[in-house]
């Protein structure tokens, strides 16, 4: 018995051991001194049941992607004597599933668990009589010899179960064949999503570069991915969206990438001439004109033309044209207006000096001006943002303005610049939008299809933000909030950052694979909560999956979620249940390595999670 059939033997050892222990409990509970042993024995049964469930879930993961009929998978998961455990072809497929380089290690874990279960079975006596004095002696013997040895064997079973789960979660994702490149249609779907991931990373790094203010605000914000023109099924129309608030004031912006080549640097406009300069110039022109008129009357036309050509004002083409014509009266000079200087703004001495030319000065190369040179985009409506704190602070924005929607753009390290546009242009209605928590939304939304639409938008947000720092590590429903726009059918989910400054200062190193698994697991849990309008912590069978001292272990949440997921298939069908399960265990066809930045993996999530949810919503609306 050195083959994979050991997995079936272990599957059968659990119920046999549990039945023996429960039979002993029925015999021992009539003994007067049972109360001294009852608590320890009940804990033993609880731990054993938990390990049985964990092992069943491990088998479910092991058999998930096996190329055998579904009914054969179901039989192998519940029947330790099924012929499939001894079938040569099934054994070959299981070995390929585990991979040759891990196969011996995997078999050692199964063998160690099988020995530990057998030793536990040997500790339990078999009672064939009803002599209460003999039963009491047997219970006392079991109590004294059972306590320490039982703990060692249970720890062995628990460790082997955890090792197998860790292996199936990580190493079993590897595939001997390379993942084929996504088809052309798939690239059309994944390319915009991967582009959004790059923009999200660039936005985070750019905010780190520019937000160094010392104001009192923590700059709370939320980030999401919205759809343009209402086309929610086309990732090419998606864009990043951020909401900033300061008390009751809110500002929402849309992030649009602009290639650096499309932004032109233009010279700043020259300052307009002062009123005194205009008056002085007009006096000079009028005096010159009067003198020329006197010359024209006393001299010949040649002398007049020679005198006029020496004066720039009258040698210009515009002046020459005004002199042409047959007998037309000349334009009369405009009347001068008296200029009064406000006493509270400009003093008399300053007014007198305004018309004087400033003396020439020399500015060396290292003498930079105080204000940077203004830069404009192609439409001359975008300026570079130097004060990010002021730009994103809602109290500095005019919420009732609909004329200025372009806040400017941010310089990035990459070859793009990020344009910040108000969204919507009129921010006044935004102040009245309802903001609610994820739990409040679930309680207030009885329609299942509406709840799952939010779940679909959340999947797209994960695919668009990837493993960037905008997505909190090991996020839960508490890291989300939703904005309910009265004109939209469903609210939009946002990832919440209560302190943008603190989020930007985080230097936490992240593993791409771990972040991907954690995000998809959280996504699967939230999809379950959206389906059933309940929380994972409220499931009654969760108590049986706790570790020692009724504390959750590393696999308690996963085991609870997988048991809860089975209810989805019973009530709503295989497709929706399958997409939730794939999120929970992070296993996708044609995607060996969990990486949200990989085109093949993103495409697999799109096809195996987003599509089934959309199909379910469509079918629900038709019914």
TrEMBL record:
Q: Any idea where the DUF7580 domain is?
A: 451-615
- Disordered, as annotated region: 350-373
UniProt-listed InterPro entries: DUF7580
Alphabetized PANTHER family for the sequence = ANK_REP_REGION DOMAIN-CONTAINING PROTEIN, PRION-INHIBITION AND PROPAGATION HELO DOMAIN-CONTAINING PROTEIN
Q: What is this protein called?
A: DUF7580 domain-containing protein
Query: What is the species of this protein?
Result: Phomopsis amygdali
């Amino acid at each position: 018995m050195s083959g994979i059939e050991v997995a079936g033997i272990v599957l059968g050892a659990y119920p046999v051991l549990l039945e023996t222990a429960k039979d002993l409990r029925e015999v021992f509970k009539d003994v007067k001194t049972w109360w001294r042993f009852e608590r320890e024995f009940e804990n033993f049964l609880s731990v054993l049941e938990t390990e049985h469930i964990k092992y069943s879930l491990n088998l479910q993961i092991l058999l998930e992607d096996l190329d055998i009929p579904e009914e054969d998978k179901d039989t192998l998961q519940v029947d330790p004597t099924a012929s499939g455990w001894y079938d040569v072809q099934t054994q070959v497929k299981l070995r390929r599933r585990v991979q040759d380089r891990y196969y011996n290690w995997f078999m050692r874990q199964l063998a160690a668990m099988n020995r530990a279960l057998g030793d536990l079975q040997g500790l339990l006596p078999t009672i064939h009589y009803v002599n209460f004095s003999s039963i009491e002696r047997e219970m006392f013997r079991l109590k004294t010899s059972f306590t320490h040895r039982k703990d060692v064997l249970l720890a062995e079973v628990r460790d082997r179960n955890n090792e197998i789960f860790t292996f199936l979660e990580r190493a079993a994702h590897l595939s001997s064949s390379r993942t084929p490149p996504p088809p052309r249609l798939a690239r059309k779907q994944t390319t915009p999503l991967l582009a959004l991931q790059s923009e999200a990373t660039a936005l985070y790094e750019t905010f780190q570069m520019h937000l160094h203010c010392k104001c009192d605000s923590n700059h709370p914000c939320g980030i999401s991915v919205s759809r343009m023109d209402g086309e929610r099924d086309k990732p090419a129309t998606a864009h990043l969206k951020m909401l900033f608030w300061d008390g009751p004031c809110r500002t929402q912006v849309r992030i649009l990438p602009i290639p650096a080549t499309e932004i032109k640097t233009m010279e700043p406009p020259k300052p307009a001439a002062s009123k005194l300069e205009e008056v002085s110039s007009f006096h000079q022109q009028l005096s010159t004109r009067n003198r020329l008129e006197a010359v024209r009357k006393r001299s010949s036309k040649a002398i007049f033309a020679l005198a006029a050509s020496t004066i720039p004002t009258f040698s210009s083409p515009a002046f020459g044209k005004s002199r042409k014509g047959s007998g037309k009266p000349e334009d009369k000079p405009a009347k001068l207006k008296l200029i009064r200087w406000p006493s509270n703004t400009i003093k008399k001495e300053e007014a007198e000096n305004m018309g004087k030319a400033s003396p020439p000065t020399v500015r060396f190369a290292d003498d930079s001006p105080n204000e940077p040179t203004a830069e404009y985009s192609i439409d001359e409506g975008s300026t570079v943002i130097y004060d990010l704190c002021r730009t994103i602070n809602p109290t500095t924005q005019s919420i009732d303005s609909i004329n200025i929607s372009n806040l400017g753009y941010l310089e990035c390290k990459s070859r793009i610049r990020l344009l910040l546009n108000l969204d919507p242009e009129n921010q006044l209605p935004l102040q009245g939008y309802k903001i609610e928590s994820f739990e409040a939304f679930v309680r207030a939304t009885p329609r299942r299809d509406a709840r799952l639409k939010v779940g679909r938008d959340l999947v797209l947000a994960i695919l668009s933000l990837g493993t960037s720092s905008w997505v909190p590590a090991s996020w839960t429903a508490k890291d989300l909030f939703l904005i309910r726009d009265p004109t939209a059918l469903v609210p939009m989910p946002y990832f919440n950052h209560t302190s943008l400054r603190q989020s930007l200062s985080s230097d936490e190193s992240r593993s791409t694979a771990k972040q991907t698994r954690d995000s998809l697991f959280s996504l699967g849990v939230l999809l379950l909560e959206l389906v059933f309008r309940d929380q994972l912590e409220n499931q009654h069978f969760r108590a049986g999956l706790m570790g020692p001292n009724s504390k959750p272990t590393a696999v308690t949440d996963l085991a609870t979620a997988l048991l809860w997921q089975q209810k989805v298939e019973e009530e709503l069908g295989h497709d929706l249940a399958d997409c939730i399960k794939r999120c929970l265990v992070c296993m996708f066809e044609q995607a060996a390595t969990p990486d949200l930045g990989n085109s093949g993996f993103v495409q697999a999530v799109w096809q195996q999670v987003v599509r089934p949810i959309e199909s379910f919503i469509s079918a629900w609306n038709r019914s």
